[in-house]
Specification:
196 residues, alpha/beta, 5 helices, 28% strand, globular
């Protein structure tokens, strides 16, 4: 991204601090695990779809809280996508449509926001207290059928960093790099990797 090119060491340091101080603790708190880091992206897996959505919202709110204290050119915003689906376990890694759809959802999210699939929305709509906006059916790369997408952003619901009610303000006026860091989350039914 442009930001990384201007201040690579500073950007990487801030991203590492955000991951250590905000992202990793909130993923663990909501019973998730980081599957892998991919450049400025993170793939996480959760046992519960409610936990995945609460973690993503808490992460976005926690990062927005941190950004408020930073000058605009030092702020970093993430996009999150959450899907519920089958994955194939391959050692410590996971693959499959569940992961691919989560990645496509992330690409539709606004910086600082979260997009979820219809399957996720059906499971969490009455269980999280978050307000989601229906973005309708969307065509996405490498997925055979259009999928209904729902969007959440901290401006829709103000939540504290732990996912509960609060008065945290979203970041305003953040500089957004061309490549926004990403978090893909999958609540999954695990399938063993095919034997080779």
């Amino acid at each position: 991204s442009r930001r990384r090119g201007r201040d690579e060491a500073g950007t990487l340091g801030r991203m590492t601090d955000m991951r250590r101080d905000v992202i990793e603790p909130l993923i663990a708190k909501h019973r998730g695990r980081i599957v892998k880091l991919m450049g400025d992206g993170i793939l996480a897996e959760f046992a519960s779809v409610v936990g995945a959505v609460r973690a993503a919202a808490a992460i976005q709110t926690g990062l927005a809280d941190r950004n408020v204290a930073l000058p605009p050119d030092k702020r970093i915003e993430f996009r999150c996508g959450v899907n519920l689906g089958d994955v194939v376990i391959d050692g410590d890694d996971i693959h499959g449509d569940g992961v691919n759809i989560a990645a496509r959802l992330e690409s539709l999210a606004r910086p600082g926001g979260l997009c979820i699939s219809e399957a996720v929305h059906d499971q969490v709509r009455d269980r999280t207290g978050f307000s989601f906006e229906d973005l309708g059916l969307r065509e996405v790369k490498n997925i055979d059928r259009p999928m209904r997408v729902w969007q959440w952003h901290p401006e829709r619901d103000l939540v504290a960093g732990d996912g509960g009610p609060g008065a945290a303000a979203p970041a305003a006026g953040c500089y957004t790099p061309r490549t926004v860091p990403t978090i893909y989350s999958v609540a999954s039914s695990a399938l063993p990797a095919p034997a080779t």
